[in-house]
Design goal:
alpha+beta; single chain; about 20% strand
């Protein structure tokens, strides 16, 4: 079981969008009412993109792109979502999306999913779809090295576009799945609060009346013809687009689109495609919502205004100005939090699309504050709003702008160096925004050049003039409060909240910037030397041993042009602290995030402006080490950060006090959340209630010591002789070796030969059941665990992975498709070698409380069948195909190699074993899965946990 070092962070509502949707819709490009140049240039067409339209009105976008190799991303996009539903059809846009996977003309029943899974396309992770208010999008990442499979990809899209079967038994069978999706995604404090907020946030608009998940009574009882009518009315080619980006021939793809989509027809009398708006407000609105299970005191203020995009270079410039203003404003707020002088525990402020672009053309100034108590919310909201008003009234300083310009320039240069490595999905999202909203398509070359040009032209005066316009009329002000029900009597009134916002700009003074004039390191370390060089030729890895004992593995790649990533580990970690000392030193893992030496985080941000370098340290249960990344030109800075974190950590009592306060806020309301209580119960069983795993009580929180944590941290990094580093990316070994000798070879070392300590944390044994009764919703959460000791080895690992994946096939088919009792069950497995060999296979799902026992028994029945009969040939084909396809992509990913090599060296394994994966994969058979089920699902240690409502 994985153990996590306690990290003191506030798990607060830290996003500006309060409207959760059944699926994630695409965002509109950011914008605001700022000064435009008035002489916007037309954005030139991207010569690599082919846009066309068929005679039936279907639009298509085609681009050849070789990242990833032998892959394509295919989308079928529809300009229709829940806004198009009639009163009797609420929820049927989303229901239609589900029906696309329940049978089409050429792929009856579940043939579509089975066909694609056998080809290595994973359902959910690859093959998927979503429905929003104004769009429905089907996505199909697909290999291009199989001609038949690739051609059939377009047939599949065309089947979705015009040939979904909509058979009565399939419609009725899907009702339960949709209802369970609503149960899984909702039926919690946030969903209850959202239902109260929607009429306020979307007041007077159709959006408030057409939430994509729909209404329960309609979903349960609609007549079949309603959904068929929706499909006939809105799935029509003049509202559809096909987007294809990948490693293919453009002419062939264009022909495939014409061949598969050209015969689709529009209705003889098409319904008008109406665009809906959000009306302006007439006066400020305040809404206060409490819930017995909501854990935080949070206040939002939204001040809306309108903006009409020009779709030329003025928009690009305007967005740059806004993004830079937002970055500077965010830095100011973070600085306040770092100093410990803020009237809020967490605060954020931003200008951009309202509710993540939910309604095109509507933007908002958004302010958020989280406070310790409900009584402090008005003051906290005023504190964040004061920083927004300070920006509006006085603007920014030249030094602030210099920092953010350097950051923007560095990002632009990096993007340009990686322009031939852009992932296909990035282009797909841009083309989708163009089709849905008319957002301009900007080629990588033009974006680089225009960004570079505007960076040179944008002045402080332009930024400050724009800032003055980043706030709208008081009539469009909406204030929202979300709080625990027990805080209800202490919450501010609507008048107090309005006064807090209106008076926040009084008596302000301009911001005073603190410049940074010191280098990160006063002196370079005394360099070590490479004492030994070894090669692992088959995987292109070089091993260096330095004079201080540091070992470095280097794998140069060409997967990215401008990326080097690295990580390291050394044995010890928090396992070096005995149980009696564990809490006292528990802040050690937070020391790296508090800064370096004299530099707090705001100062570090200024110092590192213009670089792509990152580097930090970590401490977990068994190891301590470092991690980071950089462009090749900035590698030295990243290595300097590593050296500084090891030799000059920052001890910051102010940040410590703030973090303790934040965590205490989490603790004081944590048990109000049913999910938290449930997860704590699970952790207690899987760790035998070890102090090293459970969250501290309020009393125990007071025993955490900054002094002892700081000393523990320094001790963990006092000896680098046990550190093993892995570097992956675009570098020349000879060129970077002097840097490695200087900054890693210069790390202090005294050859302690330290090892981690097995502190004996183990799960409870035998058959265990825990039923947690908490919560008010008609919703249950179920987790089943099978665990025991494990002989960790590549050949065993792959058999256990096969068992997990195949059991998920079975559980999904049984619980969702046959029983209709769940939405997305999950089967997962974890296995580790240290501190002792163990595995943990889990099955989890949410469902109606009345169905818990039935569905648990169904899972156990599927397990019994696997133990009796083994897997089917189809199961094995699907697993192997998905495994091989994933490995093909991973083998050309820097992140894969970094994680893979680090894991192999931690475990003392052969790093070349990846080359023999296919040999181990061939040993996965129907019989081997049966044997694995017998061995690993034997009920020797079986833990059933369920969360059900109190009544």
């Amino acid at each position: 079981m994985k153990r996590k070092f306690l990290v003191m962070t506030l798990a607060a509502a830290s996003v500006f969008c309060l409207i959760e949707r059944p699926v994630h819709a695409q965002k509109v490009a950011a914008g605001a009412s700022t000064a435009a140049t008035g002489a916007g240039q037309k954005i030139p067409a991207d010569p690599e993109l082919k846009i066309g339209k068929l005679s039936n009105g279907l639009t298509y976008y085609i681009r050849k792109n070789a990242e990833p190799r032998n892959r394509a991303v295919l989308y079928m996009a529809l300009k229709a979502g829940s806004l198009m539903e009639s009163d009797a059809q609420q929820g049927l846009a989303h229901f239609t999306e589900h029906m696309a996977f329940n049978g089409t003309k050429d792929f009856p029943k579940n043939d579509l999913i089975n066909y694609l899974q056998k080809a290595g396309v994973k359902f959910g992770a690859d093959l998927n779809a979503y429905t929003s208010f104004d769009q429905t999008v089907y996505q199909l990442p697909i290999p291009t090295d199989s001609a038949d499979l690739f051609r059939n990809g377009f047939k599949i899209l065309a089947n979705w576009a015009g040939h979904i079967s909509m058979l009565a038994p399939d419609i009725d069978g899907e009702r339960g799945v949709i209802i369970e999706e609503d149960r899984q995604r909702g039926k919690n404090a946030q969903s209850r609060i959202q239902k109260e907020l929607l009429p306020v946030l979307l007041h007077g608009s159709r959006y408030a009346e057409r939430i994509p998940i729909g209404k329960l009574d309609i979903l349960q009882n609609f007549k079949h013809e309603e959904i068929r009518n929706f499909y006939r009315d809105w799935y029509r080619p003049n509202l559809q687009a096909v987007i294809a980006v990948g490693d293919f021939d453009v002419a062939q793809v264009e022909n495939l689109i014409k061949e598969n989509f050209g015969k689709l027809t529009n209705p003889a009398k098409p319904k008008p495609h109406t665009t809906y708006d959000l009306p302006d407000g007439k006066q400020p609105v305040v809404k206060i919502v409490t819930d017995p299970e909501f854990p935080y005191n949070v206040a939002f203020a939204f001040i809306r205004q309108r903006h009409k995009a020009s779709n030329n270079t003025d928009d690009i410039r305007r967005n740059m100005v806004i993004n830079m203003a937002n970055a500077m404003l965010g830095a100011r707020i973070n600085e306040l939090k770092q100093k410990g002088t803020a009237d809020f525990v967490d605060g954020q402020a931003n200008y951009g699309p309202y509710q993540q672009g939910l309604v095109p053309g509507i933007e908002a100034a958004t302010v958020l504050a989280v406070t310790k108590s409900g009584a402090e919310l008005a003051k906290g909201l005023a504190g964040v709003m004061a920083e927004y008003q300070r920006m509006v009234q006085f603007g920014f300083t030249q030094s602030e702008l210099d920092v953010v310009k350097k950051q923007t320039e560095a990002a632009n240069e990096k993007a340009n160096r990686e322009k031939d490595k852009i992932a296909s999905n990035t282009f797909v999202q841009a083309y989708l925004r163009n089709y849905m909203y008319g957002a301009p398509v900007v080629s990588p070359d033009f974006r680089y050049e225009i960004t570079k040009k505007f960076l040179g032209e944008i002045t402080l005066a332009e930024i400050n003039a724009a800032a003055k316009k980043m706030i709208g009329s008081d009539n469009n002000l909406t204030i929202i409060v979300q709080a625990p029900e027990k805080e209800k009597s202490t919450l501010p009134t609507a008048d107090q909240l309005l006064t807090a916002i209106r008076d926040a700009g009084k008596g302000l003074k301009p911001y005073e910037d603190n410049k940074v004039n010191k280098p990160l390191l006063e002196n370079k370390p005394i360099a070590g030397k490479v004492t030994k060089t070894e090669k692992i030729e088959s995987i292109g890895v070089t091993k260096l041993t330095l004079s201080n004992g540091v070992v470095i593995y280097l794998k140069p790649t060409d997967f990215k042009n401008d990326q080097i990533i690295f990580s390291s580990f050394g044995q010890g970690g928090v396992s070096q602290a005995e149980d009696k000392d564990y809490l006292a030193v528990n802040y050690a893992g937070n020391i790296p995030s508090d800064g370096i030496g004299e530099f707090d985080n705001p100062s570090l941000r200024r110092l590192l402006a213009g670089t792509t370098a990152s580097g930090s340290s970590y401490i977990d249960e068994l190891y301590q080490g470092f991690g980071g990344s950089a462009s090749p030109k900035d590698l030295e800075t990243a290595l300097q950060l590593v050296y500084a974190h090891a030799t000059n950590p920052r001890k910051d009592p102010v940040v410590f006090k703030k973090n303790m306060e934040e965590y205490s806020i989490y603790l004081q309301n944590s048990d109000d959340s049913p999910e938290n209580v449930f997860n704590d119960t699970v952790t207690a069983v899987l760790s035998s209630n070890s102090i090293r795993e459970k969250k501290p009580t309020m009393a125990e929180l007071g025993t955490i010591s900054l002094d002892r944590s700081f000393e523990f941290y320094k001790n963990r990094f006092a000896d680098a002789s046990g550190q093993t580093f892995v570097f992956v990316g675009n570098f020349d070994i000879a060129a970077i070796t002097p840097l490695l000798e200087t900054y890693l070879g210069g790390l202090p070392a005294n050859n302690r030969a330290e090892k981690f300590v097995d502190r004996g944390v183990r799960p409870r044994t035998g058959k265990i059941e825990r039923i947690v009764k908490k919560g008010i919703e008609d919703k249950a959460m179920v987790k089943l665990f099978f665990y025991n000791d494990f002989d960790y080895a590549p050949e065993n690992n792959i058999q256990l992975s096969a068992l997990s994946d195949i059991l998920e096939f079975k559980v999904l088919e049984r619980l969702r498709e046959k029983e209709g009792g769940v939405y997305s069950p999950n089967v997962g497995v974890g296995y580790e070698k240290y501190p002792y060999g163990n595995y943990n296979l889990s099955v989890s799902f949410s469902c109606a409380p009345a169905n818990v026992d039935k569905l648990v028994n169904a899972v156990l029945d599927e397990i019994a069948k696997l133990k009796q009969n083994g897997a089917t040939a189809d199961d094995i084909t699907k697993f192997k195909a998905e495994y091989r396809r994933a490995l093909e992509v991973n083998m050309r990913e820097n992140n894969f190699w970094l994680g893979y090599l680090t894991g192999k060296f931690k475990n003392g394994e052969d790093p070349t074993s990846v080359l023999t994966t296919n040999e181990r994969l061939e040993k996965v058979t129907e019989a081997s899965v049966k044997a694995a089920a017998d061995k690993y699902l034997n009920n020797a240690n079986y833990f059933k946990a369920a969360l059900v409502p109190e009544k």
